[in-house]
Amino acid sequence: MVVQVVLVHGIRTSATMWRAQVEHLANRGNPVTAVDLPGHGSRMAEEFTLESAFETIDSAVRVAAARGPVLLSGHSMGGLLCIEYVGSEEPPPVAGFIAASCTAIPRGVGLATYRVLARGFDSLPDRGMWLTDRMLDRILPDETRADFGAGGYALDAQDMALRSLSVLDLLAALHRIDAPLWFVNGQYDQLRVNERLFMRVARHAELIVVPRTTHHVTVMRPRVFNAVLDVALTTLEASHR
């Protein structure tokens, strides 16, 4: 059976951030679904809640699982949500999992600092988008720069989403994950803070660190991330023959 892929974006962005991966997977022959979480992208008018976010992920996974084994990949906030989802007490039908840029526990001083910075950006003219655009222009290649924000930026959902993440029990979820797991981090990613802890707790994890790369590993190094997808897909294809 052909491996199906489900992609979950990070905070503020949308399914469009995965366009390079969607194209790669289509060329490879693997069906792919890139979801929009509530409050993001095509669902910008909706309120973000953890319950609706998990429902979105679960619905996409179960539809895909009816056609074949599922590789789930989440970036940043999407990765944190997927850790909790894949490691739930009743495991969902996920055959393999790529967790990108999300090896940090979203609690305490780190989360509080992130929320303060986000509110500071929000208070700037144009809600700080001029500064965000300048930064993204510098670090993202032309091939993915437009894709990253093509679905719009979920500025209104940001603080609610950040606040919601504090209830996740990621270490317990990681310990329960029984599927092949790949952590993918950029060398300069600020969310590498609990990387070693995550690797100790997760029982079936491999760690891939992409040199000279920041938090935006999927769009900053799309070909490298596509190669990681190929590794995961080849692994799952071999185990499901």
TrEMBL record:
It holds the Pfam family Abhydrolase_6. The keyword Hydrolase applies. Residues 5-227 form the AB hydrolase-1 domain. The keyword Hydrolase applies. It comes from the Bacteria. SUPFAM superfamilies: alpha/beta-Hydrolases. GO terms for molecular function: hydrolase activity. Keywords: Hydrolase. InterPro entries: AB_hydrolase_1, AB_hydrolase_fold, AB_hydrolase_sf. Coiled coil: none annotated. Gene3D superfamilies: alpha/beta hydrolase. This is Alpha/beta hydrolase. It comes from Microbacterium ureisolvens.
